[in-house]
Amino acid sequence: MLYMSSPINALLEGFYRDDITIDTLREKGDFGIGTFNNLDGEMIALGGRFFQLDLDGNARPAEGGMKTPFSTVCHFQPVLSEEIAMPLSHEAFTERLKGILPSDNMFYALHMEGRFRAVKTRSVPRTENYRPLSEATERQKIRQFQDVEGHLVGFYTPSFVPSVNVPGYHFHFIDKTFSAGGHLLSCEPGHLDIRLQIFFSMELTLPKTLDYLTASFTRDAKKDLEKAEK
Ligand code: ZN
């Protein structure tokens, strides 16, 4: 089952605190991405290991008690595999990704492992509540990797649910030694093994915070996400 710890519209309002812990996420999956309370680093989980990627892109194991206001995880059981066998530009990679899915209208988890000529990631600084996500990401810090081996962990969300999760692809990167990474902005793969899981259903928990319970969601989620996540 695909598990989402909260809808992304809460994050877009600047609700950066929730009470879902990494230990809770572990029960829901061994693979995934997200962020931590107050946007304190990017989260990535692979093979049951959860990491916090800090503002500089450095990785450290995430502690079980740490909390997340937005995360997507699953027990990764790929059913399809693909390969990128020769170097691609970022544009060609994006184009290739468009053709990989059997249908654009399902949810997918994707693990891509291999060599990259270049990877560009970002992390956002620790941010107080109510500051809109699109403002927080204006202060993001970029990290560039050259000739690096590593993993892309991520999901594809159909375009009709932009209030729930980031439409299209959303990947986080971590290098092979699990020492650095971040939210993927662009990459030029050399050789990649791609594995794919399809989801026909999902589980979404809704926050119980007062902020969430009393919010009226009028924001254009699709437009804000275009600015914040790409
Ligand atoms: Zn991200």
Keywords, please?
230 residues, alpha+beta, 5-stranded antiparallel β-sheet, 14 strands, binds zinc ion
Helix-strand blueprint:
Blueprint (H helix, E strand, L loop, with lengths): L1 E3 L3 H5 L7 E2 H7 L2 E5 L6 E5 L2 E5 L5 E3 L5 E2 L1 E5 L5 E5 L5 H9 L8 E17 L9 H4 L4 E17 L10 E8 L5 E19 L2 E3 L5 H4 L7 H9 L1
Parallel strand pairs: 1-14
Antiparallel strand pairs: 1-8, 2-7, 3-4, 3-8, 4-5, 5-6, 9-13, 10-11, 10-13, 11-12, 12-13
- Work out the helix count: 6
Helix-residue proportion: 10-25%
| Rg over CA atoms | 16 Å
Element pattern in H and E: EHEHEEEEEEEHEHEEEEHH
| CATH topology name | 60s Ribosomal Protein L30, Chain: A
> Can you name the CATH architecture?
2-Layer Sandwich
Strand order of the largest sheet: 6-5-4-3-8-1-14
For the report, how would you describe the main beta sheet? 7 strands, mixed
* SS strand fraction: 35-45%
State the domain count. Answer: 1
Distance between the termini: 26 Å
Basic shape: globular
> Ligands bound here?
zinc ion
Question: Uncertain segments of ≥5 residues (pLDDT<50)?
Answer: none
Overall SS class: alpha+beta
Mean pLDDT: 95
Q: Determine and state the CATH class.
A: Alpha Beta
